[in-house]
Amino acid sequence: QITALNNVLRIEEDNGVSQTVILATIPIGTYIPSELLAEIKTQLDTNTTQTNVYTLTKSDITGKTQLSFTGGSTTITVQTITSGSTLNKVT
Predict the structure, then answer these.
(1) Phi/psi of residue 14, each to 5°?
(2) What secondary structure letter does DSSP report for 20?
(3) Confidence category of residue 89, pLDDT binned at 50, 70, 90
(4) What pLDDT digit, counting tens, does each position of 30-78 carry?
(5) In what order do the strands lie in the sheet with 8-14?
């Protein structure tokens, strides 16, 4: 269940010269895991400022999600909850 309290994922993109923070703002609603990952990917790909293409995969064994990318950035950093990233909040 995505609500207004847990629908923002902030990612810092860094290409070695400049850093920008992009937002994936997920529409409020109920998602199955594959739908949620697809929506996050769409938001990140749409909002990238460094021509990144994001990939999100969920392990059936561990249940954890891996975020990877290709493109203009050399690194990305998932922002913390105190920085306004609420999607990664444990509830």
Answers:
(1) -135, 120
(2) E
(3) low
(4) 999 999 999 999 999 999 999 999 999 999 999 889 999 999 999 999 9
(5) 19-25, 8-14, 75-78
Give one DSSP letter per residue of 32-87, joined into a string. -HHHHHHHHHHHHHHH-SS--EEEEEE-TTT--EEEEEESS-SEEEEPPGGGT--T
List all residues 6 or more positions away from 65 whose beta carbon is below 8 Å from its beta carbon: 37, 56, 57, 58, 59
The tokens describing 30, both together, are 């109920």
- Spatial contact of 27 and 48, defined as CB atoms under 8 Å apart: no
CA–CA distance, 49 with 21 (Å, rounded to integer): 9
**44: how many CB neighbours lie within 10 A of its CB?**
23
